[in-house]
Design brief:
This protein is an alpha+beta fold. It contains 32 helices and 19 strands. Strand 17 and strand 18 form a beta hairpin.
Length: 1055
């Protein structure tokens, strides 16, 4: 059986066929003869030069002629964009606040914001403008800059002389710090006196800590707390008796229960034992110097001012317990025990320092990911230069992305969340480079084979110089990369972009950033990468590694036959008359079966060992493929069932793992004590007279900085508190408010919406009645008296501020609104379902009251600032997940359809993508996770990452038909052998880049690592053993499912 390749030198050799013309869109004709008994017919087929082919040919010319120019031009562009980003400060993290995570168009958020901005408009008590300045550090701040210290005895009761002495020593680290006088709550008049004299503050200027168990004990004993001497046994016993007896009295249960643990409570009552738990609440002063008059301290501002103090305290605290931070590990893991007492501390400002430090430490782990990806790039490309520059190219896409993200798209929000994406782009970028690298390596065999088969006369007439060979290799590699990487990049980027539909601004911005990052990487691959490989091959041969050079195990005859066949398939052109890309026709007179066998044998010889020795033999084993399909589809159904059970989190989001002091202290503080501190329960604000909030007025809400300005209040024009019926409604409302039952979990164990203790409701109308001696007023007289009351009276309940300025909303001299406050039984930071149930009880109560309300009192809004806003945010994360699914799956199907041009193939592929996503989310459900921030973001990312492998394999399965491979098994083997190396390499880099995050300390990073690793594992398993098994058993053959053939058939049938 003879084999030959005849190359026609001029188009005139086939006068009945049109000569190719690149300028008009080239058509190259090939005749394939089948002599002998295999039919003998001559088949003609036309290969249309598509836009990608044309681009690839032009790129081949440009890169071959000017590789250094292209390389340095790309570098200059990258360096220029990076310099702009660096020198303009665009790389710096943007200003941020908790408000940035709010869903502004949510009803609950609008309630919270309306009441907030209305209170900001309220006139001061003394005069409308300007407000009188508050004396420096005249009040105590607990929630923002204060600290809770919790103590647990390891052997018996905690209230003993020795253990109280130990507690005193620990608290002395706080109140004995040299920086403490500069942040403590000052005694009355001391600020003006010390500042006026130009002196420094000292400890004698500070008020004693009112909620410190150590201060209480030493005050009872009349001893100096700074000395921490041993307390008399009688004093300690008296203190213990007084606190424990308070648990038996409902009126003192709350105050005593704050200091004592829940270990002595049984069935809601004291069981007579002595507690092993106690705690202190240590405050700092407010306002600090530099705060705007009347401003409320935010964690960010307070931390900036108190930074010196907390840094000093942390240093002393760690030295006392003989602990220190390591390079990659915080000191706050494990227990802090001294003299039989386990100590836990918590403070928002204090752990703000820890949070920032840990995030920066965790981000340092990306260096390990970078090193691994670099090593694998060098190994896989076979070139130190190509691998190194490829890694540099991937990393430098980040400043390129930031340039377009900040300056072109105008997104100003940039935080640590965006930095997390470096772990993802390392895997994606490396995968894109592997696509080009594998095509580049395959091109060597094709070119070498054709050169060896040319006769001496052909070589003398038209020598193939280095430029010709290099151009053909670049064209082949570029075309393959242009299409393949575009398919995967488009799907992944759109998956990320779908998160821009999220109602939560940081997630929305991350979607835009990730979309830009993936596209920046794509353009870097198709511009810089080809020049890098040409430079490495042409100028730096000594930088190439021998580790990737494989010796063929097939015969020279078979290898030559396969390479020639692939050469014709790839449409490579001759180099004639000193010009590239003038047409030629390649005629193959090769028996079909021999050619196909040669192609398959060559590809199998060059496939990675795991494909040739593991995957292919397993799937070819009798009945193995159907068994894999059944098992993996069944497992996907199980995962789908589990994934459908995912719900928003029941518990609050945890930043660290349970072993970290921050999380241990939060759990103990919220669940370990008989009663919570006042700050442990939510304060509910009910407003009357505020209709809502207007966000459309100038200057308008900045989407990327919503905390700067988020609207103005809309007041009820019918609101009139001077009417007797309005006043009586408020009295009745306050009474019903106190007595409202609540069967929700969040109200347990009390069973009431509000705390049953005295002072749990701040109702101005009731205190106004007491102030007037029960005399009732109406009309202008009532307004006059209410203004006087607001000015001179002080609230008698602890949950209200020191004045009525915010509760009686006098705006520009008019009463625009009023509020009522209540201390809820719902603790702060409870989970979504717990808050939803309690919210339902509250809103049912308000609806009943609205039905009774007189005109002007029907607009009743409610606000629990943080918890209500975060409830909406948690639900918004879930909403964003399903909206993302609604966008991603159709887009992924469309991309698969375009990439494969086969509707049946696209259907099988998207089915496997669904299986992969179900596997990842099913694991979340099995592991007891909920639909938190990490899971919702990762659910969208999974779609983009999981579609890559099926696109690679499915595309090559169908392309095999152009080589004459028509049967399922032939296409199946060709796809695995051709793309197996790329798929395995891409999976390996993404897997290990994500695996590094397992060593991070932030839970979100750990979860993202787990989800990305699972995505890679499920993607490999399902793409190789389910998707490819499906193609092996019932994959499309011939024209089945081909959309081009279907369209042509429909067109012909319509004629």
């Amino acid at each position: 059986m003879s084999e030959a390749i005849v190359v026609a030198e001029e188009p005139e050799a086939v006068p009945d066929l049109p000569a190719p013309d690149v300028g008009r869109g080239e058509v190259a004709w090939a005749e394939v003869g089948k002599p002998g008994g295999e039919g003998g017919e001559v088949q003609k087929r036309a290969q249309h030069v598509t836009i990608p082919k044309l681009i690839a040919k032009r790129a081949g010319v440009a890169v071959t002629r000017y590789p250094l120019t292209i390389f340095w031009s790309c570098c200059v562009v990258i360096w220029t964009l990076s310099a702009i980003v660096v020198f303009t400060g665009a790389f710096a993290f943007s200003e941020t606040a908790v408000k940035d995570w709010d869903v502004l168009d949510s009803r609950l958020t609008e309630y919270v914001d309306a009441i907030d901005v209305a209170s900001q408009q309220a006139d001061c008590v003394e005069a409308p403008d300007p407000c009188p300045a508050v004396e420096e550090r005249s009040t105590s701040d607990v929630g923002q800059v204060g600290m809770i210290m919790m103590y647990q005895s390891k052997d018996g009761p905690v209230l003993t002389p020795s253990k109280l002495q130990t507690i005193c020593k620990v608290e002395r680290l706080f109140i004995g710090s040299p920086a403490y006088p500069d942040v403590c709550t000052l005694k009355a008049g001391r600020a003006a006196l010390v500042r006026g004299a130009g002196e420094k503050f000292n400890i004698s200027d500070c008020q004693p800590q009112q909620l410190s168990i150590a201060s209480m004990a030493y005050q009872m004993a009349g001893m100096d707390i700074s000395e921490c001497g041993v307390l008399p046994e009688a004093v300690v016993q008296g203190l213990s008796d007084w606190l424990h007896m308070g648990l038996a009295n409902a009126s003192t249960f709350q105050s005593s229960g704050f200091y004592l643990g829940g270990d002595v409570i049984a069935d809601g009552a004291w069981d007579g034992r002595r507690s092993a738990l106690t705690r202190s609440l240590l405050s700092l002063g407010y306002p600090f110097v530099g705060f705007a008059p009347g401003a409320i301290a935010t964690p960010e501002v307070a931390l900036e001012i108190a930074d010196k103090f907390y840094n000093q305290f942390e240093e002393d605290f760690l030295v006392y317990f003989n602990r220190e931070h390591s390079l990659l590990r915080s000191a706050y893991w494990g227990t802090f025990e001294t003299e039989g007492v386990d100590v836990l501390v918590f403070g928002r400002a204090f752990f703000g320092i820890e949070t920032r430090r840990v995030i920066n430490t965790d981000m340092a782990f990306c260096a390990f990911s970078i090193i691994f990806v670099w090593a694998y790039l060098v190994y896989h490309t076979g070139s130190f230069f190509a691998g190194t520059i490829s890694l540099w190219q991937i990393v430098m896409t980040i400043p390129m992305c930031v340039f377009f993200y900040r300056f072109i798209f105008g997104v100003t929000y940039y935080q640590q969340l965006h930095g997390l994406l470096i772990f993802i782009i390392l895997g994606i970028g490396a995968d894109d480079v592997f696509v080009y690298s594998d095509a580049w390596r395959q091109s060597v065999d094709v070119i070498d084979s054709l050169e060896k088969e040319r006769s001496e006369a052909e070589r003398a007439q038209e020598p193939w110089d280095e430029d010709r060979i290099m151009m053909e290799r670049v064209s082949f590699s570029y075309r393959h990369t242009l299409i393949t990487v575009m398919n995967t990049s488009f799907t992944t980027s759109v998956a990320f972009l779908s998160t821009a539909s999220s109602p939560i601004m940081p997630i929305k911005s991350m979607g835009v950033y990730a979309f830009t990052l993936v596209l920046a990487n794509y353009f870097a691959v198709i511009t810089l990468t080809p020049a890098v490989f040409v430079i490495s091959e042409r100028y730096l041969p000594s930088c190439r590694c021998c580790c990737r050079r494989k010796v063929s195990k097939v015969s020279a005859e078979t290898l030559t036959l396969a390479r020639k066949s692939m050469f014709g398939f790839l449409g490579l052109r001759q180099y004639r008359s000193g010009r590239f890309f003038r047409g030629s026709q390649i005629f193959r007179e090769t028996p079909s079966n021999s050619r196909k066998s040669a192609i398959l044998e060559m590809q199998e010889a060059h496939a990675p060992a795991i494909i040739g020795r593991v995957v292919l033999p397993i799937l070819r084993f009798p009945c193995a493929a159907p068994v894999f399909i059944v098992v993996l589809v069944a497992w996907a159904i199980v995962n789908l069932a589990y994934a459908s059970k995912l719900q928003p989190p029941v518990d609050a989001f945890t930043f660290f793992a349970p072993e970290h002091m921050r999380e241990r202290s939060l759990v103990l503080n919220s669940k370990g004590y008989a009663a919570g501190a006042t700050t442990a329960y939510n304060t509910l604000t009910i407003s009357f007279g505020v209709r809502g909030i207007d966000r459309d007025r100038e200057p308008g809400v900045d989407v990327w900085k919503p905390h700067i300005w988020y609207g103005v209040p809309q007041y009820d024009e019918e609101f009139d508190i001077s009417k007797p019926e309005s006043q009586q409604f408020l009295r009745d409302f306050c009474k019903a408010f106190r007595e409202e039952d609540c069967a929700a979990v969040g109200c347990e164990p009390v069973g009431k919406l509000l705390q049953p203790s005295a002072g749990s409701v701040s109702c101005f109308i009731e205190e106004f009645d007491v102030w007037t001696g029960g005399q009732r007023y109406e009309g202008p007289e009532f307004i006059k008296k209410l203004k006087e009351f607001r000015k001179v009276a002080q609230p008698q309940t602890p949950i209200e501020l020191s004045t009525w300025a915010k509760s009686i909303g006098l705006v520009n001299g008019e009463i625009k609104y009023v509020t009522i406050l209540g201390k809820m039984t719902l603790r702060t930071n409870r989970g979504v379902t717990v808050k939803e149930d309690t919210l339902a009880v509250l809103e049912a109560f308000i609806a009943r009251q609205q039905s009774k309300a007189p005109p002007g009192m029907k607009h009743i809004l409610h606000s629990v600032p943080f918890d209500w806003a975060w409830l909406v945010t948690s639900l918004g994360l879930v909403e964003g997940l399903f909206v993302g699914f609604a966008i991603c799956f159709p887009v992924a199907f469309l991309v698969l359809l375009i990439a494969t041009r086969n509707i049946f193939m696209a259907f099988i592929a998207i089915l496997n993508v669904i299986f992969i996503v179900a596997g990842v989310l099913g694991y979340c459900s099995m592991a007891g996770w909920a639909l938190g921030a990490g899971e919702c973001v990762a659910g969208i990312i999974v779609i983009g990452l999981s579609v890559d492998y099926v696109i690679h394999l499915g595309h090559m399965y169908l392309e095999a038909s152009h080589l004459g491979l028509q049967s399922r098994e032939e296409r199946f083997s060709f796809a695995l052998n051709t793309m197996g190396s790329t798929v395995i390499a891409g999976a390996a880099t993404t897997f290990f880049a994500a695996l590094v995050m397992q060593f991070c300390q932030v839970v979100f990073f750990n979860q993202m690592s787990t989800l990305m690793v699972l995505t890679v594992v499920y993607s490999i398993v399902y793409s190789l053993f389910c998707f490819m098994a499906m193609l092996y058993v019932f994959g499309p053959q011939g024209n089945f499912g081909d959309i081009g053939w279907l369209c042509r058939g429909l067109h012909l049938s319509s004629k």
